[in-house]
């Protein structure tokens, strides 16, 4: 096991810079998830740690060792690919033992390591099957088994669950997490799915446009997003954003486009007339008779456990999340309230968090 | 519920009638295709084979049974032609395949102007074989072609003479032309197969610790194996039955040194006007090639199982 350190790591494709000076410290045994929309550079970063892409600048260290010029096979890493990349002409045991075979390990060693990994993953009855004779979930497990057999310092996962159906994805998510708790191997996991990131990560790295937006524990990102991108990306249903202007009277208020006003928390570096964006998580908006906001209910989506509905307000659709039955129907005019300390405030221009 | 036996019988009768209808019906739907296949493929084949049991002279033909086949047994020219065909096929195929594979591997690497080079590589395939035969014949001709002089300058030949006029080297002329002609086929088909290998497989192998050579033998080759088997089989059959180049360049000479079976068939049919004998030789070639194809398909099956 080992830590992974990235220092000012850059990647250019010709004149296009896809990664801008990324700094990241991944501790020994940590499970870190790189998350972001497609094209944010997360896969490129992972492939650079694997050695499949060359860094255009900066330093990549695994443990204490600088690995910029080390071949992938000598970095002591294992990677699980989105397509699994199983060798189609080799059976499960050969797929899993291939790396050891190339290292000229003893046959007995290979067999025992392959058997051990297969037992752990519940693949022991499939060892003689070819990949094409396996289901998607089984292939996924073989790909993980291939990584485990190597007993590497770092596991790299490149969207390993994207090709599975929704139900299996939830199952494998838990399995990968359980596996990490057993093996305690440093893991870097790339996904575009924020739910995977939230459920699996010790720490999440949110990336956008080749830049790290924020690094932190899942709930820290949820509770204190550093900017509007992170705020909008983490959480489902997503955060509502309302453009507003600060008004300083007896209390501090945010005046929305249609003149309605929301009370703001005290003690923030705000002055009268500041243009801000108010972020409201759907579950923090409550139906209340004396609520400060008034709007007409649009679409109502009952989910049984909870209800999600949209309220037209300040020429926007505000998403509201309520547990159980909300008791509203389309066309109702409702009043809504939100606690001042549950608001997220962002600078309207830069999108950075205020306070 | 229970039924009397007679009752079941009476139910069974009309059902059998319907069954026979049902048995015929699909053949009716298939009949256009079947008729087309029979008329276009089977009829000419059967007629061609039937010619091999006849002897043709100027205005009539007569049935001679296995006479033509008996004549083949003592035909030394045919024996030589079979050996020539083997030599011509194996040498052409060997160089076409390995040079084509090498070219495909080169073209699989990214470089500037790859698209243009790929298009150029395909060009020899588009040249009519008569034209390429003539061109190569001229290239080998010391009066107008540069090749004999280059070979002489390199010390490969004692004098700048035409390789095509020397029985011991004549076969190399058409073989070289055929290699030039056939490389694109292998390059393009193998390149397509190479492109179908997911890059992630190579990356996984690189992480697993495979050297470039191991990646080639353990990942690339198993992937290419089915394509290789089928293209080698097709090419073998095409080369073995390919007479144009040889006929244009040497007409089977000098002294029968480039006389392959297809050339011999052509000469027998259209020069000696012995159509019956030509048909018998053609049947022999057909049987040999079918046996070869069956053997290769068998080898491929065992290979694919054991990889």
**Overall 3D form of chain A:** elongated
Helix content of chain B: over 70%
CATH architecture of the largest domain in chain A: 3-Layer(aba) Sandwich
Count of all domains of chain B: 1
Helix content of chain A: 10-25%
Distance between the termini of chain B: 58 Å
Radius of gyration of chain B from the CA trace?
27 Å
Oligomer: heterodimer
Rg of chain A from C-alpha positions? Answer: 24 Å
Strand content of chain B: under 5%
* Tally of discrete structural domains of chain A: 2
- Please state how the strands of the largest beta sheet of chain A are arranged side by side: 6-7-8-3-9-10
CATH class of chain B: Mainly Alpha
Tell me the number of helical segments of chain A per DSSP (H or I, 4 or more residues long). Answer: 8
Shape of chain B: flat
Biggest interface pair, counts: A-B, 22 and 18 residues
Number of helices of chain B: 13
Give start-end ranges of low-pLDDT stretches of chain B.
Answer: none
Low-confidence stretches of chain A: none
The biggest sheet of chain A amounts to: 6 strands, mixed
CATH level-3 fold name of chain B = MetI-like fold
Describe what is shown at a glance.
The complex is a heterodimer of chains A (355) and B (307). Chain A has 355 residues and is of the alpha+beta class.
Word description of this protein:
Chain B: The chain crosses the membrane at residues 27-53, 86-107, 119-140, 171-194, 223-249, 277-299. Chain B: It is a multi-pass membrane protein. Chain B: It is found in: Cell membrane. The complex is a heterodimer of chains A (355) and B (307). Chain A is α+β, with helices and mostly antiparallel strands and 355 residues long. Chain A has eight helices and 20 strands. Chain A folds into two domains: 2-231, Rossmann fold, CATH 3.40.50.300; 238-345, OB fold (Dihydrolipoamide Acetyltransferase, E2P) (Beta Barrel). In chain A, helix 2 runs parallel beside helix 4 (136-149) and helix 3 (107-121) packs across helix 4 (136-149). The longest helix of chain A has 18 residues, at 166-183. Chain A is elongated, with a radius of gyration of 24 Å. By secondary structure, chain B is mostly helical. Chain B has a single domain (73-303), classed as MetI-like fold. Chain B has 13 helices and two strands, in the order H-E-E-H-H-H-H-H-H-H-H-H-H-H-H. Chain B has helices spanning 5-51, 67-73, 76-107, 114-121, 123-126, 129-140, 147-153, 172-195, 199-208, 212-240, 244-249, 261-270, 275-306; strands at residues 54-56, 61-63. A two-stranded antiparallel ribbon of chain B has the order 1-2. In chain B, strand 1 (54-56) and strand 2 (61-63) form a beta hairpin. The mean pLDDT of chain B is 85. Classes of the chains: A alpha+beta (355), B mainly alpha (307). Chain A binds chain B through residues 50-52, 71-73, 77-79, 81-83, 85, 87-89, 98-99, 102-103, 146, 150, and chain B through 198, 200-201, 203-210, 214, 218-219, 222-223, 304, 307.
């Amino acid at each position: 096991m080992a830590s992974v350190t990235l220092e000012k790591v850059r990647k250019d494709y010709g004149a296009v810079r896809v990664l801008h000076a990324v700094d990241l410290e991944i501790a020994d045994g940590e499970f870190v998830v790189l998350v972001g929309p497609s094209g944010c550079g997360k896969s490129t970063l992972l492939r650079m740690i694997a050695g499949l892409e060359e860094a255009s600048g900066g330093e990549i260290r695994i443990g204490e060792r600088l690995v910029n010029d080390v071949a992938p096979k000598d970095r002591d890493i294992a990677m699980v690919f989105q397509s699994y990349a199983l060798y189609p002409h080799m059976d499960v045991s050969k797929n899993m033992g291939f790396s050891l075979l190339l290292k000229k390990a003893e046959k007995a060693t290979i067999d025992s390591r392959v058997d051990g990994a297969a037992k752990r993953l519940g693949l022991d009855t499939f060892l003689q099957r070819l990949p094409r004779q396996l289901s998607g979930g089984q292939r996924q497990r073989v790909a993980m088994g291939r990584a485990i057999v190597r007993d590497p310092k770092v596991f790299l996962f490149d969207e390993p669950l994207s090709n599975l159906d929704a139900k299996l994805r939830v199952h494998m998510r838990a399995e990968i997490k359980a596996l990490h708790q057993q093996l305690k191997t440093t893991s870097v996991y790339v996904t575009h799915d924020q739910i995977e990131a939230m459920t699996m990560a010790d720490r999440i790295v949110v990336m956008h446009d080749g830049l790290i937006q924020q690094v932190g524990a899942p709930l820290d990102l949820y509770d204190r997003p550093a900017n509007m991108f992170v705020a909008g990306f983490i959480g489902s249903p997503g955060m509502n954003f309302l453009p507003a202007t600060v008004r300083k009277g007896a209390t501090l208020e945010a005046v929305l486009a249609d003149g309605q006003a929301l009370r703001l928390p005290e003690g923030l570096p705000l002055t009268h007339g500041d243009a801000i964006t108010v972020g409201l998580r759907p579950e923090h908006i409550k139906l209340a008779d004396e609520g400060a906001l008034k709007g007409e209910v649009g679409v109502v989506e009952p989910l049984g456990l909870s209800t999600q509905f949209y309220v037209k307000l300040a020429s926007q659709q505000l998403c509201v999340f309520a547990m159980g039955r909300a008791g509203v129907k389309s066309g109702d005019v409702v009043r809504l309230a939100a606690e001042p300390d549950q608001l997220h405030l962002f600078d309207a221009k830069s999108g950075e968090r205020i306070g | 519920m229970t039924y009397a036996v007679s009752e079941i019988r009476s139910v069974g009768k009309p059902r059998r009638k319907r069954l026979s209808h049902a048995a015929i019906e699909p053949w009716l739907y298939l009949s256009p295709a079947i008729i087309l296949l029979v008329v276009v493929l089977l009829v000419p084949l059967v007629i061609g084979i039937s010619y091999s049991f006849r002897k043709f002279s100027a205005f009539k033909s007569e049935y001679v049974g296995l006479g033509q086949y008996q004549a083949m047994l003592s035909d030394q020219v045919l024996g030589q032609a079979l050996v020539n065909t083997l030599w011509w096929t194996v040498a052409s195929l060997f160089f076409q395949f390995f040079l084509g594979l090498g070219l495909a591997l080169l073209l699989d690497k990214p470089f500037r102007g790859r698209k243009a080079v790929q298009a150029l590589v395909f060009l020899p395939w588009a040249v009519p074989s008569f034209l390429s035969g003539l061109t190569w014949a001229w290239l080998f001709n010391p009066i107008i072609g540069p090749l004999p002089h280059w070979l002489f300058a390199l010390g490969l030949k004692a004098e700048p003479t035409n390789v095509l006029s020397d029985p011991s080297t004549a076969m190399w002329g058409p073989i070289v032309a055929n290699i030039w002609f056939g490389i694109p086929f292998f390059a393009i088909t193998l390149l397509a197969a190479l492109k179908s290998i997911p890059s992630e497989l190579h990356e996984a192998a690189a992480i697993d610790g495979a050297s470039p050579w191991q990646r080639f033998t353990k990942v690339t080759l198993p992937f290419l194996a089915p394509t290789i088997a089928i293209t080698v089989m097709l090419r073998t059959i095409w080369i073995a039955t390919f007479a144009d180049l040889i006929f244009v360049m040497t007409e089977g000479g000098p002294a029968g040194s480039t006389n392959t079976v297809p050339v011999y068939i052509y000469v027998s049919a259209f020069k000696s006007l012995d159509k019956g004998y030509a048909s018998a030789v053609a049947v022999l070639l057909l049987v040999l090639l079918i046996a070869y194809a069956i053997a290769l398909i068998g080898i491929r099956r065992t290979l694919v199982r054991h990889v």
